[in-house]
User: What shape does this take?
Amino acid sequence: MKLRELQAIYVMWARQMKRFVRAKSRVIGNIVQPVFFLAFLGMGLNKVVALPGSENLTYLDFLAPGIISMSIMFSSAFAGISIIWDRRFGFLQEVLVAPVSRLSIVIGRALGGGTVALIQGFIILIISILLGVKVKAILPAIPFMILSALVAVGFGIMIATFTKDFQGFQLIMNLLLFPMILLSSAFFPIDTMPCWLKVLSEINPLTYAVDGLRGSLMGYNHFPLHVDFLIVLGVCMGVMFLSSYLFNRSEI
Amino acid sequence: MKAIETHNLTKTFNGVIIAVDRVNLSVEEGEIFGFLGPNGAGKTTTVKLLTTLLRPTSGTAKICGYDVVRQRSKVREKIGVVFQEPALDTELTGRENLDFHARMYGLSRKEREERIEYVLNLVDLVDRADDLVRSYSGGMKRRLEIARSFMHSPKVLFLDEPTLGLDARARFTVWNYIKRLNKEEGITIFLTTHYMEEADKLSDRVAIINNGKILVIDEPEELKNRIGKDVISITCSHPEKLREIVERTDLNVVRTTNNLLVVSVNHGEEKIPMIVEVANENGIRIESISLHKPNLDDVFLHYTGRKLGG
Assistant: This one.
């Protein structure tokens, strides 16, 4: 690893930080929406839904990690897909003619998008606590937050290498990412799902990220935590390599 | 060693559209090489092939001896590019855009500071360096891009339509930067344009490209000399008929298109009355006649049968 590659990763990251700090309205928008979900859906269903196998956990407690995951994943996937914007506005060419490996570009992008998503995730975590969610521990949740951010950025970059326009991006967001998040146990537990949904949930890599985050934050998980962690780590590495491979192969 | 060398360089899209068709080029070090052709001729595709953004379908290209496919990162170290569409991050300031570039090319802190100041001065953007690029005019963006393109001291600079959309003054300024870079930093420049005046004023040699094919490569003066001393353009009712008549005389017909006949002659001002006379005798109505020194537009017309701008 040459020094230049590290510098490139750093500057790709720094660029996204600068843009993040300057785009205040977008940041607020990205935080307000999940907070609405949490406050309205969580508070509204709090007394309606009883969770199987846990008396002292309310629906709001269950939902909070799901919403944090959702917001991290949407925000990260969006950061990955925003390569389409860079392509449209020409900036991608500036990045691609630089003597920097494609892997470094993908890593820099992933770290930038991931950091932004993590900041938003933490803000929502703090808001959840203020809303009365009984969080058990925060530290063990951090690896899951980082990994789900990286998985989603990589996923977004993969989408961006296939779709050249905004319409294609909308379609994939609605047809792929949204159902994956719905089936990730972010909103309802796996135990009570009908059999066919359970199967879909179990092959959905996002399930393990959500389950791991919920397990480490609330102590309520479907799979053992180490299984969650290993699967998410594996998926993360796979997605990173695949996305930089696809990105390397794609032409402008 | 040649700065740029291609051998039958070809790019097809979807297996059907031939954007670049067996292009053979050889650009010397320190040369300003003009790539002249109408929109859609294959200029930008050629630049993207030479700058490693696209992969050739067949044929090869080398930049400073490095192959654009097999030694892509070597090629990338040697080149600077100004793309046709602006490639700036408009949410960053001018200085931040330059700093981004400098770090991507691995410049040290000291080099970064020096080069950023140097290039900002050269393109007169020091006062606006800390404003967001979003607030820049088209000409300022172009100047910033030119500044950025040679920050890392490339050997070969690609400028894809560098003055597109600029007003006359901004264009003139950009021309001066290009000449200075070539003279003072000794950078080889590959310049695409569809402005014949630009190719004429700046280039040591010009290649004319149309439909992906190179039609001719030579010095601008040589190209013009090939046509003759004077050029007479005649707009009339029956150009083909007039052509037949004129061809019987000692006049050299360049081309006819639509209602236009172009001939090249010596002592053009003396030939005009004769042309008018024979046209009248044969019932051909002349709408306008103009006499001028040959320019690259005439050269283009000569080789392709159509006008460059139209």
The longest strand of chain B covers residues 17-27. The mean pLDDT of chain B is 88. Chain B is about 35% helix and 30% strand. Chain B touches chain A through 30 residues (CB under 8 Å).
